[in-house]
Amino acid sequence: MKSVVAYCRSACEEPGTPSSAYSQADAIRRYAEQRGLTLGAVYTDAGVSGVRMKRPGLERLLADCRAGKVGMIITKDADRLSRDMGQLIAVLHIFAKAGVRVEYSVRTPEKATTLSGAWRPRDPVDDDQGGARA
């Protein structure tokens, strides 16, 4: 059975302070529970820039998606996956080819990401669905 997983990333992680990436994971757990989803693995890249594609957590996530282990990824927003639009498109394409659905637990009211990487106005009809899909 394919699992529901989380991906969390934050570039700024100060030693001895609460971790933003781990705070994201807690918020995603609550998001999943509210929707009746059981969250499996949490892939985390704490203190790693979203411009780089070489991230241990992201690389493991991509490998598990390609291996057919993942059915859905929940992440805070598209910026967690990549801060570079071209890389974001490539990552979303990999997920789509693997049959993996992507949900964002936090949505910017004015926009949502499409697979093509273009920004489009948020569809009010999709508000209760929890996020843009890849």
Concise summary:
By secondary structure, this protein is α/β, with parallel strands linked by helices. Helices cover about 30% and strands about 25% of the residues. It has helices spanning about 20-35, 55-65, 80, 85-95, and strands at about 5-10, 40-45, 70-75, 100-105, 110-115, 120.
What does this structure look like?
With 134 residues, the protein is an alpha/beta fold. 32% of the residues lie in helices and 24% in strands. The strands form two sheets. Strands 2-1-3-4 form a four-stranded parallel sheet, sandwiched between helices. The protein has a two-stranded antiparallel ribbon with strand order 5-6. Strand 1 (3-10), helix 1 and strand 2 form a beta-alpha-beta unit.
Give structural attributes.
two-stranded antiparallel ribbon, four-stranded parallel β-sheet, disordered C terminus, 32% helix, 4 helices, Rossmann fold, single chain, 134 residues, alpha/beta
